[in-house]
């Protein structure tokens, strides 16, 4: 989940949950930022959701436990040409890496 205000992208917050399944976590993304227009969200190189408007949620996806980089871009942005709007590292199931 991403929370924050477009005027202060440095203050965006990401919330993460862990799973009870050893070695595997299920990750979904929800845009909880009403001031941010649609966005594309990536976990590493894998797409979580494209064109996520306020309150849109991605389908749950399973990943191995570990550390991943989450990046948020404007819709249809060329990731090779611009920096993300915001991003963070997500530790999926801490302690199982």
What would the principal axes of the Cα set say about the shape? globular
Report the uncertain regions: none
User: How would you state the average pLDDT, rounded?
Assistant: 78
| Biggest β-sheet: strands ordered side by side in the sheet | 5-4-7-8
What's the number of helices? 0
* Rg measurement, Å: 13 Å
The succession of helices and strands, N to C, reads EEEEEEEE
N-C termini distance:
22 Å
Specify the structural class.
Answer: mainly beta
Largest sheet: 4 strands, antiparallel
What this model shows, in words?
The chain has 97 residues and is mainly beta. It has no helices and 8 strands. The strands form 3 sheets. Strands 5-4-7-8 form a 4-stranded antiparallel beta sheet, with no helix packed on it. It starts with a strand and ends in a 5-residue tail after the last strand. The mean pLDDT is 78.
Short description:
The chain is mainly beta and 97 residues long.
List the helices and strands and how they pair.
Elements: E1 2-3, E2 13-14, E3 24-27, E4 39-43, E5 46-52, E6 61-64, E7 66-74, E8 86-92
Antiparallel strand pairs: 1-2, 3-6, 4-5, 4-7, 7-8
Relevant terms:
97 residues; 0% helix; globular; 4-stranded antiparallel sheet; single chain
């Amino acid at each position: 989940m991403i929370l924050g205000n477009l005027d202060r992208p440095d203050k965006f917050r990401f919330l993460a949950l862990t799973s009870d399944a050893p070695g595997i976590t299920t990750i979904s993304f929800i845009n909880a930022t009403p001031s941010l227009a649609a966005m594309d969200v990536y976990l590493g190189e894998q797409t979580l959701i494209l064109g996520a408007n306020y309150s849109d949620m991605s389908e749950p996806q399973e990943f191995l436990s570990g550390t991943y980089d989450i990046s948020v871009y404007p819709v249809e942005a060329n990731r090779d040409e611009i920096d993300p709007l915001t991003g963070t590292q997500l530790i999926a199931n801490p302690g199982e890496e």
